[in-house]
Amino acid sequence: MEKRPFVAKEKLEEIVREYPTPFHLYDEKGIRENAVKLKEAFAWNKGFREYFAVKATPNPFILKLLKDYGCGMDCSSLTELMMSESTGFSGPDIMFSSNNTPADEYRYAEKLGAIINLDDITHIDFLEESIGYIPETISCRYNPGGLFKISTDIMDNPGDAKYGMTTEQIFEAYKILKNKGAKKFGIHAFLASNTVTNEYYPFLAKVLFELAVKLEKETGADIAFINLSGGIGIPYHPDQEPNDIYVIGEGVRKVYEEVLVPAGMGDVAIYTELGRFMLGPYGGLVTTAVHEKHTHKEYIGVDACAVNLMRPAMYGAYHHITVMGKEEAACDHKYDVVGSLCENNDKFAVDRMLPEISKGDLLFIHDTGAHGYAMGYNYNGKLKSAELLLEEDGSVQMIRRAETPKDYFATFDFCDIL
Ligand SMILES: *Cc1c(COP(=O)(O)O)cnc(C)c1O
Q: Whole-angstrom Cα distance, residue 78 to residue 236?
């Protein structure tokens, strides 16, 4: 599918006059429309709830938008809990899906009344020591190990993932938790990441629903919810076909009716913890071409770098690039589009065919709405950019200012050399 930015060149030029590049721009309309679709796709399940994976786009303005659709928040750290709390989420609005969890984070989650999702069987004792008791509602994270395959396609490798309990452990964990007073149980699993297929969720659902039936039978635990977690992907590459969330919702419903309903478990709530699917396509990194270099290769230097978007450097991930105003021009130039870090993997694109780029051109790097700004860091002392929200009426709101050197030096405030 052809990829077009959600913002026109003239609008972007207007924005750039007020807010210098680079910045991440989010599309309120796209975020809202997508959230509605997810809700509709799972409307057949009475208890359905999306717990947005805060780590994907940790910005209170974004969290607030999602609140309008009844979303809860999926947190995995102290500051994510704090951000959710300050944005008005509390109690069962928050799912705490952490791993290798520090005791003070369990205490904070407990204080908020969040639903705690245990990553490991040893955390039963650890949680009890940390907060003094076992909550009535508790969830366990499952990892069946091996390769996660849909027919012959390898989707991911849970056997190599640090998360979750084995099959044996989750049965044991439920029994222990029940003895310690837990009354309502959840199952959680995240077995494949960024899946661009409508089959992942229904397939995962089948695994978890069958497990749920066995768990309830064997341990007598009351299973209240099944959390399909994240993993629904987005088409980063124009050749990829996007997922159809309605087909996915319908696929899960079918398995629900085949497995859970006949087992008398037709009241189990389905939860999701999507991050990428909720925000990915509705954010773009806007950057200006500032240098061109002709050596062994052709380079375009832009004013953003891996600090603003780490996925290409970290995973070799593809992010589509539109040269604003040159959408119809022939892609007859081969470029490496690079940032300014002293790291040769600081490249947004390698050997990419693009229209001829001139200094001053605006580049729109697609699909940075999730795991984009959030993964940023400060290597080379580079500062993180602003985040802007393009509102439905066309106005622009700065939802996070850019860092200044003062922010970078703030952690030296205990001494007086600076
Ligand atoms: C990262 C993460 C998610 C979200 O993953 P996406 O790929 O963005 O959908 C959900 N749940 C947990 C526990 C995670 O760690």
A: 30
Of ligand 1's atoms, which has the minimum distance to the CA of residue 280?
8
Q: Is the dihedral of CA 285, 362, 305, 389 positive or negative?
A: negative
Give yes or no for residue 74 CB within 6 A of ligand 1.
Answer: yes
Tell me which residue of 296, 362, 284, 303 sits closest to 334, measured CA to CA: 296
Cβ(413)–Cβ(344) below 8 Å: no
Tell me the pLDDT of the chain (418 aa) as tens digits: 789 999 999 999 999 999 999 999 999 999 999 999 999 999 999 999 999 999 999 999 999 999 999 999 999 999 999 999 999 999 999 999 999 999 999 999 999 999 999 999 999 999 999 999 999 999 999 999 999 988 888 889 999 999 999 999 999 999 999 999 999 999 999 999 999 999 999 999 999 999 999 999 999 999 999 999 999 999 999 999 999 999 999 999 999 999 999 999 999 999 999 999 999 999 999 999 999 999 999 999 999 999 999 999 999 999 999 999 999 999 999 999 999 999 999 999 999 999 999 999 999 999 999 999 999 999 999 999 999 999 999 999 999 999 999 999 999 989 877 6
Query: Which ranges constitute the DSSP H helices of 197-243?
Result: 200-219
Q: What is the pTM of this model?
A: 0.97
User: Whose alpha carbon is nearest atom 5 of ligand 1?
Assistant: 230
Contact partners, residue 291, CB within 8 Å, separation at least 6: 299, 300, 301, 359
Ligand 1 neighbour 190 (Cβ under 6 A): yes
273 lines ligand 1 (CB under 6 A): yes
> Which of 116, 153, 146, 120 has its CA nearest to residue 131?
116
